[in-house]
Specification:
The chain contains 13 helices and 19 strands. It is α/β, with parallel strands linked by helices.
Length: 434
């Protein structure tokens, strides 16, 4: 295969990679941006369904997220204003309860306050997660913390239900990440949920991605998965799966954590980082869109992990006389999102008689280039291993929402991480170290 060379190779064209490639290319560096898929966006994916654009992957942003908000303002892209919803259903202690938002919040708020009571004390600087010694909870799982609260079956299900969108495995996910998220939102879990899961981008995430790409001078190559990355001490050689070699002064690897074990990196990474890469993160969730017949009353619904295949549900849009509902399943294997009747049956737990006309879903767990959804780190990885992957590895730099110092797991964190990697590379190239 032909060999080529450039200043920087960026691997992965999700938000982190696209941001890094733009920032580096605008600085005047020659940049090649490699993407394994036949599209950009990574775990964000705006596609056509039901005759309109929908986000099958990451969706939500917020004006309190500085990196994504700056990009939205710069490109004059507005947020989509969500529907006003007051009806809430919640499955707890074997029964579906319903009420207003105020009723639901009255049930959840005191429980969340107990769960997150120490968030600010643990992470007084939530943008520097390893600034304080939290070793005593370094191995604590979300399940451990839930157990420690000794809640009644009803209260436990209420708290479980409000966390369930973000949980695949209570025994594998670390408490630390939830505490960091809460600490970043003033210690208030309800405030975090508003920032993390409520406001979509008008026109979908692809609209922002295309705007950032529009500023980039990088050469984009789609359908080009990478096999290995080698830093020989003078330059980096990136070898694609088809055997093409690209030599560069530096590389930025902006791939999902769960795919890094498929790529050979030399010299070898440090042991804590290798352990994190080999163990992967446990998020194996599903986001399912359902088109429901007629314009129904907008609602939220929540169910504890394992008690219903769908763990959080929200009416997102009214569309062509019907209603579009977005559903999250904490365990993607618990329901087939393409099975209209299965989705309908799960929704009828909350709203009897609801009629699902069609569904749309992307299998992020089975997708070899994601192998899971957004990150939730195993105990200890967020504060002990992820910071190691943020450090330059010779001429190889890592980026991505999965290892972001702030906004971990989200679009804002991906943009922040990509911009940081670009700054680090630019500084190193200017110093002549690369």
């Amino acid at each position: 295969m032909a060999n080529s060379s450039c200043d920087v190779v960026v691997i992965g064209a999700g938000f982190a990679g696209v941001t890094a490639a733009r920032d580096l290319s605008v600085e005047g560096h020659s940049v090649v941006l490699l993407e394994a898929r036949d599209r950009v966006g990574g775990r964000t994916y705006t596609d056509e369904a039901f005759g309109r654009r929908v986000d099958l992957g990451g969706t939500y942003v917020h004006w309190t997220q500085p990196n994504v908000w700056r990009e939205l303002q710069r490109h004059r892209i507005p947020l989509a204003v969500p529907l006003d919803i007051d009806k809430v259903y919640w499955l707890a202690d074997g029964t579906v309860h319903s009420g207003s938002q105020l009723d639901y919040n009255a049930a959840v708020s005191p429980l969340a306050a107990r769960f997150f009571a120490d968030a600010r004390a643990r992470f007084p600087l939530p943008f520097e997660v390893n600034a304080v010694d939290n070793d005593d909870i370094g191995q604590e799982t979300i399940g451990d913390r839930l157990d420690s609260l000794a809640l009644s079956p009803y209260d436990r299900d209420v708290l479980d239900g409000t966390l369930a969108t973000l949980v695949h495995s209570y025994s594998e996910q670390g408490t630390e990440q939830l505490l960091v998220w809460a600490a970043a939102s003033f210690g208030d879990w309800a405030a975090f949920m508003e920032t993390a899961g409520y406001w979509p981008i008008e026109g979908g995430t692809r609209r922002l991605l295309d705007a950032i790409l529009g500023e980039s001078k990088a050469e984009l190559r789609l359908s080009t998965p990478v096999g290995s990355i080698d830093d020989d001490g003078t330059s980096v050689t990136v070898t694609t799966r088809t055997g093409e070699r690209i030599r560069a002064r530096s590389a930025v690897v902006a791939l999902p954590l769960n795919t890094l074990s498929d790529i050979s990196v030399s010299p070898r990474l440090a042991q804590p980082v290798r352990d994190m890469i080999e163990q992967k993160h446990p998020m194996r969730t599903a986001k399912i869109w359902a088109r429901v017949r007629g314009e129904i009353e907008p609602f939220f619904a929540f169910a504890p992990v394992g008690k219903n295949p769908l763990n959080s549900v929200r009416v997102e849009y009214l569309h062509d006389g019907d209603t579009l509902v977005v559903c999250f399943a904490s365990d993607a294997s618990a329901i087939d999102g393409t099975d209209r009747e299965a989705v309908q049956a799960a929704l009828r737990t909350f709203v009897p008689g609801i009629e699902v006309v069609d569904t749309a879903v992307h299998d992020w767990v089975g997708d070899e280039f994601s192998q899971g959804t957004w990150v939730h780190h195993r105990p200890g990885h967020l504060t002990k291993a992820a910071p190691g992957l943020r450090e330059p590895h010779g001429r190889i730099h890592f980026a991505g929402g999965d290892i972001a110092a702030f906004g971990v797991g989200g679009i804002d964190g991906a943009i922040e991480s990509g911009a940081r990697a670009a700054r680090d590379v630019t500084a190193a190239l200017a110093d002549g170290h690369h």
